[in-house]
Amino acid sequence: QVQLAESGGGLVQPGGSLRLSCAASGFPLVEFSVAWFRQAPGKEREGVSCIDGTPHYVDPVKGRFTVSRDNVQNKVYLQMNSLKPEDTAVYYCAVGRFGYHCSGYVPYDYDRWGQGTQVTVSA
User: Fold this and answer.
1) How far lies 42's CA from each of 3, 45, 121, in Å?
2) Residues facing residue 74 across a β-bridge
């Protein structure tokens, strides 16, 4: 069974850190680009980061978020530091439809999605 599952979300104070995990079953993540998206209430889903052979980030998270792979565990991680209230959202991982290379953050370009994990940054 092909599945993606995120974990690691929660409530954190501004300036705090969380590490999100994206675990795959039924297929090897190493063969695909993997992106992180987020969706805040009332807003469209937006891309945050993508990893193929190298990590990629959107400007609002550069220097604060780090994406990485663990090919043995078949997981991708998103380390989030210096969190801000505007980072509050449901975070999703997604696998690229067209293979290994990150090609941007159009949701249609990703065909396998996890169920999402809530991240809330609040004092």
Assistant:
1) 27, 10, 17
2) none
Residue 112 corresponds to which tokens in the numbers above?
């396998």
| pLDDT tens-digit series, residues 53-69 | 899 999 999 999 999 99
First to last CA, the chain: 40
Taking the alpha carbons of 52, 57, 62, 64 in that order, is the dihedral positive or negative? Answer: negative
Single-letter residue type at 34: V
Cβ 100 vs Cβ 33: under 8 Å: yes
Tell me the three state secondary structure of residue 84.
coil
- For the cut 80, the answer to whether the pLDDT of residue 1 exceeds it is no
Residue 34: per-residue pLDDT: 97
Angstrom distance (rounded) from CA 88 to CA 66: 17
- What is the torsional sign of CA 56, 57, 59, 61? negative
Residue 44 amino acid letter: E
**Model pLDDT, residue 103:** 86
Residue 26: strand, helix, or coil: coil
Q: What gap in Å lies between CA 37 and CA 27, rounded to an integer? A: 20
